[in-house]
Amino acid sequence: MTYRDVGLEMSIHTRNRPSALHGALFMLLLVMALGLSGCGSEQPLPATPTPVAATPAATAALSLQPPTATVPAPTSTITPSPEPTFTPSPTLTPTPTPWPQATFVPDQYVVDWGDTLQAIAGNYGITLEQLLEMNGMDGDRPLQVGQVLAVPSAISVNLPQAYLIHDSEVVYSHAYQNWDTRRFVEQQGGYLAQYREGELTGAEIIDQVAFKYHVGPRALLAVMELASGWVTNPAPSSLYPFGLRDPGRATLTLQAKWAAVRMMEGYYGQLEGRRDWVFLSNGVPARLYPGTNPGTAGIASVLALISEPLGVLDVMQSNAFQNTYLRLFGTVAGGAVLPPDGEQPYFGLPWREGEIWYFTGGPHGGWGDRESGWAALDFAPPLKRGCAPSRWPTLAVAPGMVIQYTPGETWVDMDGDGNIHTGWVVFYMHLSSTGHAPLGTFVEAGDPIGFASCEGGISTGAHLHLARMYNGQWMPAYRPVPFQLGEWTARGFTTESYDGYLRNEDGRVLEACDCRSRRKNQFPEVWHPGMR
Fold this sequence. Notes:
The chain is of the alpha+beta class. The chain has helices spanning 56-59, 117-123, 128-135, 167-170, 181-188, 191-194, 202-213, 217-228, 252-271, 294-306, 311-318, 320-329; strands at 108-110, 148-150, 157-158, 196-197, 200-201, 277-279, 285-287, 358-364, 376-380, 393-395, 400-406, 409-413, 424-429, 442-443, 448-451, 464-470, 473-474, 484-485, 488-491, 501-503, 509-511. The chain is built from twelve helices and 21 strands. The strands form six sheets. Strands 8, 9, 11, 12, 13, 14, 16 and 17 form an eight-stranded antiparallel β-sheet that branches. Residues 1-37, 41-91, 96-106 and 526-532 have low confidence and may be disordered.
């Protein structure tokens, strides 16, 4: 068994899925297109924002159609060099986190707000009658939130217990404050140091992908080294740096983008409890060991697709990835990427007293559904349908400095260090390029920051897309630390993005809806944001 250049058995876009996981369980893999205020889940890659304190990773723009690379065509032959030898290192020691990770409950489903028996049965590919029979129910009694139902398990392959990497290494966290990709790549002297796509070096490409998808560059480099040897070997064993044998995606840019998306898909799926499995290269799902940390889930999501079917079992048991990682970087201390005790700053509602806004999107991708956590919530101002900028300003939900801005995207840093990878950061999307807070502006909670529009990403109606980030990790809006705006707390479902609701301290519920409904998703007309 080799872990290098071991081809995919089936395209990841056309693999068969188990029937028991049909339905809404797989909606996270689909592109969402909402009407009034929808954000596209597969957004085009935007230009890199200009930060206050620019870094190499933040200054270059990533092209989806890069110039022809100097790497030989996939049909050429490269003579593999001998496999590097090294003394196996001990496995990484798991780093305690101040908040529990997503947990695995085998063959059970916990009823959540808004669930119905029919919907649950459909999600698992069975009939309503089959679900009732499995649970000894007659269907007459209403479901209760928190009720546990037996559901069929369609995943027969189980991955072994493993700790491959710290969470803070997989997301672009505070652990990378003094990291220099260019220097590291040049020191290794491998094929990556020679690689060019037009005027971009291999290190610059890694930095751009890491910055755009908020994935740790060391995690990308370790996967690349294990898959192909590009980092340390001048004559690598594969033409495909991340092991994805797809001639249409043979350039480093496209391979790195593919790996970053898969990594974040596994990471946030496990963190939020939406997905406790990875796909093998033959399309069969394999369930992660109960309690697997999100970082390990992210790495396993990539390794499983570039290994022979079931080969990822050997990878995880043999310490192959951990040894590669430690050989490249030595011992790296893991850091917390969740706030201590699950606490968050006070966030107010982003509009003025007396205005009528609507809750139009429940938890969904902070930036693209698959490559980020379901960190965002959507709110529409009192506008008719359309993309004309709102006349009603969007207010800052918390104090901070505008440290990055591109049309439609505004980042506000709450700790004042100018780095989105440390502390709390608030992301405002779809703000108009006219009337927005300038770069470098310090805003207080309740200050105007811009006007909702359709700019940035994909949108069919003017609205605000609002998300949080902590220590470089998207903070899911639902769990483990629910997004709280004033007296309203976000709730969601693990099966479908954009679905969800808000509940206030009095028990009132607003359901996310691509509509305008006084009874369903309109905020109280006389409620005051109560900025503190």
